[in-house]
Amino acid sequence: MNVIEAIHNRHSYRGKYKNIPVPREDLIKIMQAGIDAPSGCNKQTASFIAVDDPEVLSKLHNVIDPPIGETAPAAICVLTQRINAYRDKCFAVQDYSAAIENILLAIVELGYQSCWYEGHITDDDRICDRMAEILNVPKNYELVCFLPVGVAESGPAVMKKKAFEERAWFNSFGQMQ
Question: How far is 130 from 114, CA to CA, in rounded Å?
Answer without folding.
Answer: 21
